[in-house]
Amino acid sequence: MNLIPNLLIKNVKPVGNGFVGDETLDLRIKDGVIDEIASGLHTQEDENVFDGNGAYVSGGWMDMHVHFREPGYEHKETIETGCRSAMFGGFTEVACMPNTKPAIHTRDVVEFIKNKSKNQLVEVHPIGCVTKERAGKSIAEMADMKNGGAVAFSDDGDPVYNSQVMRVALDYSSMLGVPIINHEEDLNLSRPGHMHEGEVSARLGLDGSPAIAEEVMIARDILLAGFTGGHIHVAHISTRKAVDLVRKAKAEGLNVTTEVCTHHFDLTDEEVERRKFDTYVKMHPPLRTQDDVEAMIEGLADGTIDVICTDHAPHSIEEKEVEFIYAPNGIIGLDTAWSICVERLLKPGFLNLSQILEKLVQNPRNILNLDVPRLERGNKANLTLFNKDEEWIYSAGEVRSKSKNSPYIGEKLTGRAIAVYNKGLFCVNTLKN
Question: Of residues 311, 335, 371, 389, which has the active-site annotation?
C-alpha cells in the first residue's frame, strides 16, 4: 500500500456510470481525484503508471457486514489485518459490527475505531449497538454515536429480542435516518441448534436450527417497520420463505432491505456431512438446503436482495479446532467473495456484471447513506480493479486475515481483485503462490 496521489491506470475496462465494460480505456488520477477517462492517455510528469492489462475497473466495493474484532478480540483480527483482507478481496469500504469488547455502544468506541482506521486505505464505518452492551434491555445512545460516525445500529450476534425495544429502535431510526440491522433469530426456536434443522441434521444426530426461527423474527420486524416507518435491514438472509417475506414487504412499499452472504448462495448443509463435521462450515445462520441456495440467487436476480456481503467472522485456530458442537459460528469471507460471485452468479448467467456490482458498490452505500463512488471526472478516486477469468489457488499462504477459518482454503477459484485505490492510497494484490 503506497501513497500515490497521481496515477495513470492504463488499459482498463470501466464498469458503472454509463460504462458497461466493453471498452478498454485509460484512467488518470490527480491528487486523488479522477481527472480523465479516455483512450491513449500519455504519461505526465510526476505521475506513476500502472498497466491494468485489460482488467475491469469499478467504483470501490463495500462490505456492509464484517467483524474486525477490535477492541477486545485482537487475537482473532485487528482493524489493520481486517483492512488487509478487505484490500485483497477488492473492498475499499466496510461497516464493522459491534460485538466487540467493549461493545460499540458509546461514542468513544465509535471514535476509537474511526481513529484507529484513519490511515488505512479501507474506510471503516462503525455500526453502533442498538442496546447498551448488546444486552437487549435498554436503548444505547444512538444519536450520540451517529454524531461520532456510526452509520447504522445492530446487536448482531444476537437479535433485538424484545419487541418493545425494537419498536423504540425503529422509531429512532426513522428520526435519525439510519437503518436498524437485525440478526433475525427467535432464540427459543433455534437454540441449541448447531446446523440447519433438516434431513442432514437428523442423519448426523445434531440439534438443528430450523428455518422458521429466522422467518418468525423477520416477519415481526417487517410488521414493526410498517408500524413505525423505520428502516429495517435484514442481516444475512438465508431461507426461501425469508426472501418471500422481504419480497412481499417491498411490494407493499415498506422500508425493508436485506443482504445475503456469499456462502449462503454457494454452500449447503450437506457440507457438514461431506466434510465430516469440519467446523469451518459452521456459521449462523447455518448453511441451509439447496432450495434455499437457489432462493438466494433468485432474490439477487429479481432485486429482492439488495446487497452481497460476507459476514467476515474471524476465529482463531484454537477456537475452531474443537468438537463441532463447541466451535464458535462464523467464517472469514473477504478474500474469496468476488470469486464466489463469479462462480455462482456471473458464469452461470444468473446476474450480469453490472447487476453484481450494483450490490457491491451502490446499494450498500445507499442503505447506509454514504457517498457512492462514481467513475466521473472530478470525483474522488475510490476504485477496484478486478478480473473474472483468472484462475488461482486459495492456499493458506494467500489468507490475508489474521485468522484462517475459511472453507475455501485449498480450492481453485476464478476471478480476483487485482488492485484497489482509495484516499490517495494504491494497493496491488500480488499472489504469493
Answer: 311
